[in-house]
Amino acid sequence: LTSIISLLTTNDLLRSSCPAGWRKFNNRCFIYIPRTMTWARAQRNCVSLQATLASIHSFQEYHYIQRLITTATHGSPQTWIGGSDAQEGVWLWSDGSPFLYSNWCRGEPNNYMNQHCLQMNYGESKCWDDFQCDQHRPSVCAKNI
């Protein structure tokens, strides 16, 4: 009986933690991907990890992801996250969650030269910017625990 209880407890711990290299915040796991790629390729890469490009739902979550990037890079590179507006002006998260929180830079999103993908850490304010999806950026993936 003790072995069964121990096994169940271990399984519960495994379910509530993140895979190696991933970092936990609330009920999700995040990982910074330093290799630069287009937004679509970054999303496919996240899917290959059973994840999606990160959606962000609060200032605290955004700040956590910024710290994750800073820890990995010792900087604040512009980085892909999971927002896009294939239908101009209708921003959606690639994981299907509601797009309720935003941290757009002043004057953004502006769709300059058909910008439909969301990068974070833009400009001095390290806020959000719509950008051309075919440009290469590092990325952050997220998955639910």
UniProtKB/TrEMBL annotation:
This is C-type lectin domain-containing protein. The keyword Disulfide bond applies. Residues 25-142 form the C-type lectin domain. It holds the Pfam family Lectin_C. Keywords: Disulfide bond. The keyword Disulfide bond applies.
